[in-house]
Amino acid sequence: MDDEEPVAPFHGGGGPPATAGGDDGKARRKPSFSSSDTHLLPRSLPELHKLEETTRRKRRSGRHSISEARSSWAITAGSFGNGRWGSHRRFGRRPQVPERRRHLDKERIPSTHGGRGALPSAGGSPSDLLFLAGGGLGRMMILKRIPTVLSNYQEAAEPRRCGRNCLGKCCLPISKLPLYAFNGDANPRNSSFGVDETPPDFFLNSLLLAQWEDRMSRGLFRYDVTACETKVIPGEYGFIAQLNEGRHLKKRPTEFLIDRVLQPFDPAKFNFTKVGQEEVLLCFGAGEGGKACFLESAPVGEDNSPNVVAINVSPIEYGHVLLIPLVLDHLPQRIDPDSFLLALHMAVEAGSPYFRLGYNSLGAFATINHLHFQAYFLSMPFPVERAPTQRVPIAKGLLCHGGVKISLLLNYPVRGLVYEGGTSLKDLSDVVSKSCMCLQENNIPFNVLISDSGWRIFLFPQCYAEKQALGEVSEEILETRVNPAVWEISGHMVLKRKKDFEEATEQYAWRLLAEVSLSEARFKEVKDYIFGAIGLEESKKENIKLEEKKETSFQSSAPIVRATCNLAEGCLVLQ
C-alpha cells in the first residue's frame, strides 16, 4: 500500500451503485463463496485485522502466489451478524486505478439511495452508523463499491441514472420525495385576518419553513441571506430596501432573447430538471378524490410529472422558494390556467398574509425559460398592498366572472390592475390567467404578485427592458444595476451597492419604478386588450369611489422591527 495513492480512512460503502463492468468498462470477476467457506469470513474487526496482517506477511515473504493474490478477497465492510456484506478489496498486485475512481472522505455526505453508508432514515442498515461515525478500519484503503442486491433483476430493472440525483427523467421517476396533497375541491377563505393580525397555524406554512431552514443549515445557498441588511425607507409608502451584494455576482446569466415574451423551451439551456434533489423541499398537488394529506416519502412514478417546490439558491428573503409546475413536461415560462390555479392553491394552503408568490414573464426579468413561480415570507405589507385602488365599472349584461372585482392601481409609480374576490378560487384564477395570456400573445412583458393568501392579485404590464434597449433609461438608474422584477415593483427593493442602500430615498424608489410603468395612453390600450380577452366592457360611468389604502406612512429609516406573529423567528431578515 506504500506506493499507492492514499485515500481517506474507510467509513462505509455509500455511493451510487457500481456498474457491472466496473469503472473502466472491463468485466470484473466477482468473489464467490460457498457454504463451506463461511469459516473464512471475519466475524469481528479483530479477525478482519488479523486476516489482513496475514495477507501482508505472505506478500512480504513471497509465499503469496500471483494466482492466489488475484483470487484473494478480503471483506472490508459489513453489517456484522446479519449476513449482509458491503465493499470488497482485492489484495495482491497494485490494482490499475481508473481515472474516475471516487474517493471516500469524512466530509462526504452519505448517499441517499439506501445503500451502504446510508443513514437508517434513507434505507440503510443501523449498523452503517458505525462507518458513518468513522468506525470500521482506521487504515488507508482503496475501495470498490458494489450495490446491495435485493433482486436478481435489480440491475436490469433500474434505468441508468446520470449520477447527479437530479430532477430529470433519468432520476426523478424512480425517486421518492415528500408530497403535500391539498384538497382541490375545497374553497377555503383564509384571508379574513389583516396583515397586522396573527394568522392561524397552517401546516404547509410550518413545513416550508422547517424544510427551508434545513437546507440553509446544510449550506445549499449561494450566500447567507440572513446577513443582508434591510430597512424601511422613510416616506408615505414605506418602500423596503435590502442590501444584497452577493446576489448579482453569483446569479445565472439570462440565456434567451429579452424581446420575446413567448419562446420555446430549450433543453440545452439551464432548466430545473438539472437541479439536484437535495434542493427540493416537497411535491405539491391536488390529492386524489379531493383528500388532503402529507406523505414524508412518496414514489414519483414513471408516468407522473410532479409539481415541485425547491429552494431558490440565490434567495431574496427568508423562505424563498420556487414552485415548478409539471417539472418533467418542460413547460416554457408562460402562464396557463392550470399552473396559475396551482400557484393560488399554494398561497391558500400556506394561509399566511406574509407569504406571497410572484411571477416574471420573459422580458420582465425572468432569467430561466422554464415555468416557475417564486415565493417568500415578508412579515409586513408590501408598499403596493398599501396603495389606493379604484374599482373599474363594468357594463351591465356582461358575464360577471363569478363576482371577481377588477380595480385600477392609483397613486403608485407603476400602473397596474388589481383582481380580488370571486365566488371560487377557480373563478379568480380564470380571469387573471386569461389576462396574462392576452399579454403573452401580444408580446407585452408583465409581472404578477399573488397576495392576501391567494385572493388578491396584482398585474403589472411593464416596458423597462424595451426602454433600456432604446437607451431611454437614465444613466443614474442604470448604474444601480437593479432589475425591476415583481419584488422590486411591489416595493421590496434589492440593492447591490452599499452606497445606493445608504442613500436610498422614496424619491429614488419612485424614479426607478416609474421607468418600469407604461405610459397612461399605452396602459389604457393594454387594458382594453385585456378586457376584450376576458369578455368585459368598461362602463362609461365613473361612479365607483376610491378605495383608500389601509396604512399610514412610515417616518423612520431604522431597521425593520419584527412583526408579532407565530411564524418561525427570523421570517424577516434583519440587522
UniProtKB/TrEMBL annotation:
Signal peptide boundaries: none
Enzyme class: transferase
GO molecular function list: GDP-D-glucose phosphorylase activity; guanyl-nucleotide exchange factor activity; hydrolase activity; nucleotide binding
GO CC annotation terms, alphabetical: cytoplasm
Coiled coil stretches, renumbered: none
Keyword Nucleotide-binding set for record: yes
Biased amino acid composition, Basic and acidic residues: 46-55, 96-110
A family per Pfam: GDPGP1_C
Residue ranges occupied by any GDPGP1-like N-terminal domain in the UniProt entry: 204-376
Location, primary (coarse class): cytoplasm
Catalytic activity: GDP-alpha-D-glucose + phosphate = alpha-D-glucose 1-phosphate + GDP + H(+)
Region ranges (Disordered): 1-70, 84-122
InterPro entries: GDPGP, GDPGP1_C, GDPGP1_N
Swiss-Prot/TrEMBL keywords: Cytoplasm, Guanine-nucleotide releasing factor, Hydrolase, Nucleotide-binding, Nucleotidyltransferase, Transferase
Residues in GDPGP1-like C-terminal domain copies: 383-535
GO terms (BP aspect): glucose metabolic process
Enzyme Commission number(s): 2.7.7.78
Subcellular location: Cytoplasm
Function: Specific and highly efficient GDP-D-glucose phosphorylase regulating the levels of GDP-D-glucose in cells.
Family statement: Belongs to the GDPGP1 family.
Official protein name in the record: GDP-D-glucose phosphorylase 1
